[in-house]
Amino acid sequence: MTATPAPEAAADARPRVLLLFGGRSSEHPISCVTAAGVLHAADRQRWDVVPVGVARSGLWSHDELDVASFRLDGDALPEVPEPKAPVSLRALPDGTVELTAADGSSLGPVDVVFPLLHGPWGEDGTLQGMFESLGLPYVGCGVLASAVGMDKHFMKVAFQAAGLQVGPWETITARDWARDPEAALARAGALAYPLFVKPARAGSSFGITRVTEPAGLRAAVEEARRFDPKVVVEAGIVGREIECAVLDGHGAAAPRASLPGEIVVAHDEGETQFYDFESKYQDTGTTQLSCPAELPEEEIERLRALAIRAFEAVDGSGLGRCDFFFTPDGRWVVNEINTMPGFTPISMYPAMWERTGLSYDDLISELLDLALERGVGLH
Known about the structure:
Cell wall formation. Residues 156-369 form the ATP-grasp domain. Pfam families: Dala_Dala_lig_C, Dala_Dala_lig_N. The protein has 3 domains: 16-138, 3-Layer(aba) Sandwich (Rossmann fold), CATH 3.40.50; 148-165 and 238-371, D-amino Acid Aminotransferase, Chain A, domain 1, CATH 3.30.470; 169-235, Dna Ligase, domain 1 (2-Layer Sandwich). It has helices at residues 7-11, 28-41, 126-134, 143-150, 152-161, 174-179, 181-189, 217-225, 277-282, 297-313, 348-356, 360-374, and strands at 16-22, 48-54, 60-61, 88-91, 97-100, 106-110, 112-115, 169-172, 195-199, 209-211, 231-235, 240-247, 256-257, 261-265, 287-290, 319-326, 332-338. By secondary structure, it is of the alpha+beta class. A hairpin with an 8-residue loop joins strand 12 and strand 13 (256-257). The termini are far apart. Residues 1-10 have low confidence and may be disordered.
């Protein structure tokens, strides 16, 4: 005899959202805190949110997780524990997708995924490819845009092809370093100092070193290689760091750009500091958001147009945060695009939209609506 669904379940027409967070990358704790922010803000009248954590091993956990309590201001960074009974997704013959337990039993359907994983194995197109193969809509950029947006080398190539100005850089691949590290150092060291040495496919300022003289370059490359065997070395650019949030348009409508924001990092007299992990996530007393950034109106509109061009240069969809330098001689130099920016309480992306007139909870609903509208497959 078939069981009759409870009246509450039968009447619940809310789309079921898989809130996916954690992951295998070094940005695991940031992803956990981002999930807490989205979980607090999601409109439960519209969305049935199911949090699922990805442990460091890559296994998915639907165990009892106190996601809402995740913070970065405690003694220990938040972590998804290894699950005793991992869960997974399964596509059904009727085209629906469900969350399944380790024993194969169903944990209910999934209508759309909000993948809050940052860095490799989450923001780089790998998960997006899985969602595409399952036919499951998801928030954010597709496979190509996610992969290009994760790789600082190919990102810059795409920007250049779209006519955007990028700063001087050199890439050191794993093969370069294995064959002739001295030649790689000489090539990178020919750029104008100070240099910023970065893992090519990481974020949240992990593994980034500011180098002021040639003697420090090798150690900086080795530090970046702890996070990624491919390293990008960028010449320092004199200018203000200005960011702009981009949100996709509905249907054939153009993407939308927020008012620009500028992070001001306080530091002791005589000390130079860049916007590092601590400034971004743990020490809010050293940073302040200025939004809209203090710029002439014509420069604000120019930047918003350039941010949309950068978003479209990587074939973006859903959302992206575009970071620029505004030089003293009035040039806009694009630094990077982040295809899954953080949603922590102090993150730039939601804060810029908040000050542009779109609230945090409305922004989340807008992103989910866009994902369901876009669907999957070629567009």
